[in-house]
Design a protein that fits this description.
The structure is a homodimer. Helices cover 48% and strands 13% of the residues of chain A. Chain A is an alpha/beta fold. Strand 1 of chain A pairs antiparallel with strand 1 of chain B.
């Protein structure tokens, strides 16, 4: 197990009706609030009106950044920064999923930074100060509600970059599974794939003796495999929504990867897909992951696939290791298919056009991945996924 | 799943050589430090000298509360309070396991409290302020390094009580598995039993749909079952010590019980044994737990024992539920026996003498346990454990 540091400063309020903590959470930091959200879903579900009522009851003056994109863009961050500065905002309230939260995180830091917000996306070390951030989560997927990461895109240059800072941890996150009842089926499926990808990215590591992390990862994967289909078919199933929501936070907060940190593989490959084709992140991950697995399965990695097959998918441990590995990958593919997630990149509009450039960009850093990948490897994985 | 709140403010530095963070951690809070520790082991291992060197290099003035008992006593807490007040202490450094840490926690709050420290043990709500606490962990067991609990005994009245406060979270905990290489074999065994008990106390719950918590608990239990014997037989095995140490913290920080909180069963029963006979906490838990399980196994609880048997101990799920349950309890007994933990109370000096009184005291609150227990139930469990 590697050395590590671990701390989760975010205060989580989990469960039905936890929005009752919103007023006290906001007022700890001030009365002038920037409300950041995406599409119109928070208006359709009534959450927007609930928040407005709390604002007016507690004397909050609010300003709005609406329309944050599914892959949030640096131009939107810049708009948010301007709104904060013009209105002397004290605290940011992000309502939504990873897109709104990530956008709000970078706004929170860029307000306090003299240069352009994109600098902070390229280099998190420049972040020295940030406005406090409160989150109301409405989809279980990225884990951004309890982590220090943010991913922002510049569609002019087709760049989608991740950045991080300890100042990005939300001060408070309100996690009410009922807010996810209205998540569309395809987004429920994509969210589940995203959670699982966060776990698998670190589950496939080479760090000796990171046993406890592996066993916790398996527990979280089993939770997604059990409840993903239930939430997909019964959107109002509280138990399924609650388990997926808490799994999404725990998948990325550190218990699965502190001590066995390894460079992500599927995420950098998917980020290029989103940057060039603006596809749904979780769908891109689900399409690529099985092909990545097939590409890297060999005598060095098969042991990890055996763990994955036996402990996650319940495959008979007495079978041949490669049979277990192949069967585990097949089960993962079948699982995605059971959630009606497309299985090829063509289905989501990706063509051969930018593949070589994307593979070049994605492979930057992948020499340190669980199984090192060159741009030729990434290109092969993209082509197999087409 | 129940509603819950969750936050882990403690900063963890985990791994070899993490004592390098001690100086910066202390100096954040001041120069006047109360060092709290137990027996002479920190002197024998050289850790005491290392700490003294850091103190003198960083200009720390230190005061000492040595000799904290394995079941820390309220008189020792009072001595610590006096030392803090006399010397105007800024920050407390606890070095050891749960005993030293728990003692330091109650000192930290009692210094700021006008009445007697025992008030705070009886009622954690009275705690409004506390000195900052830094921890260096030297045994994996209680999880006190990353939680808000403390257990203190008054041997005059044979009371051993738990108390808690959010102010009890250590500010920083340094977790270096190498510091546990010198833990005696019997304490390694007892520590493993203590970690497992923390997990099992909450694993056996009646909360519907707390699935993710159960799967994480199983992962932690498997870690203890895998590494307990390795650490017992190879005290210097870093991998085993590291996994047990991190499991001890995660077993109690909340991921196993936030959302499925239930009143402990074995702990209250064991606390009476320690209060009357000053036995090793983990040993008492290991003796009682299988008898508690046998006592409560019935048609209402058997499903949970099936999960326990199949998912933790790998028992064939196609067997009869009671066969699985019996076999799981037997495997737990065999596991404790493999660590040479006594299997009867008589072996550790407990007689029939106080059993009735102890059962009366222990059963207070157990009407809300996973399986409600009366004083007659507790007495039966004590007698079966004799």
């Amino acid at each position: 197990m590697n050395n590590f540091a671990y701390q989760i400063p975010t205060e989580i309020y989990f469960g039905r009706g936890q929005i009752k903590h919103l007023e006290e959470s906001l007022l700890k930091f001030g009365h002038r609030v920037l409300l950041v959200y995406g599409g119109g879903s928070i208006k359709r579900t009534g959450l927007y009106q609930t928040i407005q009522t709390i604002f007016s009851q507690s004397g909050v003056e609010s300003f709005e950044l609406a329309g944050v994109e599914p892959n949030p863009r640096i131009d939107t961050v810049r708009k948010g920064v301007q709104l904060c500065r013009q209105n002397n905002v004290d605290v940011i309230l992000a309502v939504g999923g990873g897109s709104s939260i990530d956008c709000a995180k970078v706004i929170s830091a860029a307000v306090k930074y003299k240069g352009d917000a994109w600098d902070l996306v390229k280099n998190g070390n420049l972040i020295k100060e940030a406005l406090p951030l409160i989150v109301i989560l409405t989809i279980a997927a990225t884990g951004s509600e309890m982590d220090r990461f943010a991913v922002i895109s510049d569609m002019n240059t087709n760049d989608k970059l991740g950045t991080f800072s300890p100042l990005f941890y939300p001060k408070v996150s309100i996690l009410d599974p009922e807010y996810t009842f209205t998540v569309p089926k395809n987004q429920t499926a994509a969210g589940t794939a995203d959670i699982m990808s966060h776990i698998m990215e670190r589950y496939f590591h080479n760090i000796e003796g990171a046993y406890v992390q592996d066993r916790l990862s398996e527990g979280l994967l089993k939770t997604c495999i059990h409840y993903g289909p239930i939430a997909y078919h019964e959107p109002n199933n509280y138990e399924a929504r609650a388990n997926l929501m808490w799994a999404s936070s725990l998948a990325i907060d550190g218990i699965t990867w502190r001590g066995n940190d390894v460079v992500n593989s599927a995420h950098p490959m998917e980020h290029q897909l989103s940057a060039y084709h603006d596809i749904t992140h979780g769908v891109g991950l689900a399409i690529i992951t099985p092909h990545w697995m097939k590409h890297i399965l060999n005598e060095k990695t098969v042991g990890k696939f055996v763990d994955f097959g036996v402990n996650v998918w319940g495959i008979d441990s007495s079978l041949d290791p490669y049979e277990i590995a192949d069967s585990a990958i097949k089960k993962l593919e079948n699982f995605y298919a059971s959630l009606d997630i497309p299985s090829t990149l063509r289905e989501v509009g990706v063509t051969e056009e930018h593949l070589v450039t994307m593979a070049e960009k994605a492979s930057n850093g992948l020499e340190n991945a669980f199984y090192p990948l060159t741009s030729a490897d990434v290109l092969a994985i993209y082509k197999a996924s087409l």
